């Protein structure tokens, strides 16, 4: 797509869910501020792009909080100074889907398709972190359509009325309170089946993991027979743009996306 991505040297974890559970506000914000400071030093003038919903959310929040709270800004820089870093907060923070939607556009995505995903009916599961509190500019918080548009750009049929597209999967509750998380996931998968979906796709890697890997436990608990493939949205793009099933990491799926693999292997 003509985009040059440059890794942030020595980047660190954003803290994600555990950052809210303990350790305090300053350490949590300083983790993301460190990534921003590193990027501003090594990639000056460049935007910061996250492919993980949690990383995007944490980094966006840190920038907003440090901009609005001058004392926290000073405290974060005092911490970063111990590592020889200085946070300026000038770099724009974006999710990769913002780049695909706003900078490239759906027509350009469609033009790159070599293997249309024809015959696939896909439930676009946005999840909560790319939708709240920031969201994607111009999109509805209740019914964002950008993922449906990406699905249709690669030749598949999107389920535009998929009613669980912004339902939380439970996130880290999958570890701490699995019964609550699995009840949420049950509804996400059941709605996909009710709408005739062949598979679910999502822009959040944690949503992808949670909705896929706990289906056996959910089947045992609810007496269901779920076997719904769940793929990350870039895997759809990989296959549609002509890459192999292995390139698209489909061989790493716990629940095989067989129909998508068949298209990749044509």
What are the salient characteristics of this protein?
266 residues; Glutathione S-transferase Yfyf (Class Pi), Chain A, domain 2; Rossmann fold; 2 domains; two-stranded parallel ribbon; 6 strands; 47% helix
Task: Characterise this structure.
- By secondary structure, the chain is an alpha/beta fold.
- The protein folds into two domains: 18-95, Glutathione S-transferase Yfyf (Class Pi), Chain A, domain 2, CATH 1.20.1050; 105-264, 3-Layer(aba) Sandwich (Rossmann fold).
- The chain has 13 helices and six strands.
- The chain has helices spanning 18-21, 25-42, 53-68, 70-81, 96-104, 106-111, 146-153, 173-176, 178-194, 205-213, 215-222, 233-240, 258-264; strands at 48-50, 93-95, 121-124, 157-158, 199-202, 230-232.
- The strands form two sheets. A four-stranded parallel β-sheet has the order 4-3-5-6, with helices on both faces.
- Strand 3, helix 7 (146-153) and strand 4 (157-158) form a beta-alpha-beta unit.
- It is globular, with a radius of gyration of 19 Å.
List the helices and strands and how they pair.
Layout: H1 18-21, H2 25-42, E1 48-50, H3 53-68, H4 70-81, E2 93-95, H5 96-104, H6 106-111, E3 121-124, H7 146-153, E4 157-158, H8 173-176, H9 178-194, E5 199-202, H10 205-213, H11 215-222, E6 230-232, H12 233-240, H13 258-264
Parallel strand pairs: 1-2, 3-4, 3-5, 5-6
Helix pairs in contact: 2-3, 2-4, 3-4, 9-11
């Amino acid at each position: 797509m003509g985009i040059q991505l440059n890794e942030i040297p020595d980047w660190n974890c954003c803290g994600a869910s555990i950052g809210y559970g303990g350790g305090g506000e300053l350490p949590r914000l300083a983790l993301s501020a460190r990534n921003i400071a590193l990027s501003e030093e090594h990639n000056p003038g460049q935007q910061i792009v996250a492919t993980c919903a949690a990383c995007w959310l944490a980094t966006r929040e840190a920038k907003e909080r440090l901009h609005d709270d001058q004392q926290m800004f000073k405290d974060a820089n005092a911490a970063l100074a111990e590592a020889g870093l200085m946070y300026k907060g000038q770099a724009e923070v974006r999710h990769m889907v913002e780049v695909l939607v706003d900078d490239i556009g759906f027509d350009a995505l469609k033009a790159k398709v070599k293997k249309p995903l024809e015959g696939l009916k896909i439930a676009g599961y946005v999840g909560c972190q790319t939708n709240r509190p920031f969201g994607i500019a111009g999109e509805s918080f209740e019914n964002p359509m950008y993922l449906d548009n990406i699905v249709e750009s690669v030749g598949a049929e999107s389920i535009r009325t998929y009613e669980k597209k912004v339902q939380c999967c439970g996130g880290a509750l999958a570890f701490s309170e699995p019964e609550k998380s699995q009840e949420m996931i049950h509804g996400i998968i059941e709605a996909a089946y009710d709408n005739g979906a062949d598979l679910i796709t999502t822009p959040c890697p944690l949503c992808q993991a949670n909705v896929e890997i706990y289906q056996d436990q959910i089947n045992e608990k609810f007496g269901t027979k779920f076997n719904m493939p769940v793929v990350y949205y870039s895997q759809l793009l990989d296959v549609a743009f002509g890459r192999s099933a292995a390139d698209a990491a489909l061989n790493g799926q716990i629940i095989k996306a067989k129909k998508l693999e068949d298209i990749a292997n044509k």
